[in-house]
């Protein structure tokens, strides 16, 4: 059984240590356990309860009301909120809770249900990407460690890959040819994997080259594969490489092939249309671009 200090609970749930102490005194919440040296600590069950209380509190339930509920009532109420798959705040919070507990089954269940109920495109746009932005913020402020982020992103990547394999038989011989890659020092594949999903779901040919690809290797593959488009995502770059430099290197590597770019680093980037660069600001815009460029192949 894990042991958490009050500062651990604060970091993992967002509930201030002072607030926890007040709740303990005023509402008789969570009488902490004590070590042999009288140092307070909390266990796994306490963490789960704190996460549930934080979820209810963030969704309009006052602590005075929550304090009158027993643990079973709290669990049932949170479960009922989770059933509202179109409440994006709840689903993002549920994924966050599952990540903080590193509960593999719970995370997979929440993600799978959102995709099934909302559809892949909506679930990724309104649940997954907002969740990942929250994860990034939590990582920056020290609420989570890299293991939490790795757990969550790999679960999401696995789900997108699985869903993408369902389109293997839909590839159309008349579909466009795409190369998808991440340049050196880029390792976040969720956006790239989802672009592959969208393209394959529309019958296009995708050569997925993954993360951290050297520019010289990209040149060789472009010459061999002769794609209609190259697509990349820019979210993190080396400190000695700026966005314009990265774009310039990609353009040099792919020659005259049109380039589609997305990612947090380039959503506000101004480009010259003569450069054959298409900037995609979000998922909805990417779907629209596919349609406008007459790239979508009806199955």
UniProtKB/TrEMBL annotation:
Q: Where is the HTH merR-type domain?
A: 3-72
Signal peptide bounds: none
- List the SUPFAM superfamilies: Cobalamin (vitamin B12)-binding domain, Putative DNA-binding domain
Do you know which InterPro entries this protein is assigned to?
Cbl-bd_cap, Cobalamin-bd_sf, DNA-bd_dom_put_sf, MerR-type_HTH_dom, MerR_fam, Meth_synthase_dom
Q: Which residues cross the membrane?
A: none
Instruction: List UniProt keywords, sorted A-Z.
Output: DNA-binding, Repressor, Transcription, Transcription regulation
One annotated GO molecular function: metal ion binding
Record PANTHER family = MERR-FAMILY TRANSCRIPTIONAL REGULATOR, REDOX-CYCLING DRUG-SENSING TRANSCRIPTIONAL ACTIVATOR SOXR
Report the protein name in the record.
Answer: MerR family transcriptional regulator
Q: Which organism is it from?
A: Pedobacter aquae
């Amino acid at each position: 059984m894990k042991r958490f200090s009050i500062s651990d609970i604060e970091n993992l749930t967002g509930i201030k240590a002072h607030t926890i102490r007040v709740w303990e005194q005023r509402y008789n919440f969570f009488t902490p356990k004590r070590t042999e040296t009288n140092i307070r600590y909390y266990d796994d069950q306490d963490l789960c309860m704190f996460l549930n209380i934080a979820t209810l509190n963030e969704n309009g339930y006052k602590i005075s009301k929550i304090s009158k509920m027993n643990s079973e009532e709290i669990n049932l109420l949170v479960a009922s909120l989770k059933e509202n798959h179109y409440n994006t705040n709840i689903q993002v919070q549920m994924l966050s809770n599952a990540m903080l507990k590193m509960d593999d089954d719970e995370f997979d269940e929440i993600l799978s249900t959102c995709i099934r109920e909302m559809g892949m495109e909506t679930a990724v746009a309104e649940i997954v990407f907002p969740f990942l932005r929250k994860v990034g913020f939590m990582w920056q402020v020290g609420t989570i460690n890299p293991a939490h982020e790795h757990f969550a992103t790999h679960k999401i990547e696995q789900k997108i890959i699985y869903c993408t394999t369902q389109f293997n038989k839909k590839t159309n011989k008349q579909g466009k040819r795409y190369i998808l890659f991440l340049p050196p020092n880029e390792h976040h594949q969720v956006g790239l994997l989802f672009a592959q999903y969208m393209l394959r779901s529309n019958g296009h040919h995708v050569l997925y080259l993954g993360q951290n690809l050297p520019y010289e290797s990209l040149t060789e593959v472009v010459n061999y594969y002769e794609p209609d488009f190259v697509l990349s995502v820019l979210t993190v770059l080396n400190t000695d490489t700026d966005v314009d430099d990265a774009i310039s290197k990609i353009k040099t590597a792919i020659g005259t092939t049109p380039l589609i770019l997305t990612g947090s680093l380039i959503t506000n980037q101004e480009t010259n249309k003569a450069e054959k660069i298409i900037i995609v600001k979000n998922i909805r815009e990417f779907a629209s671009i596919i349609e406008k460029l007459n790239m979508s192949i009806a199955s």
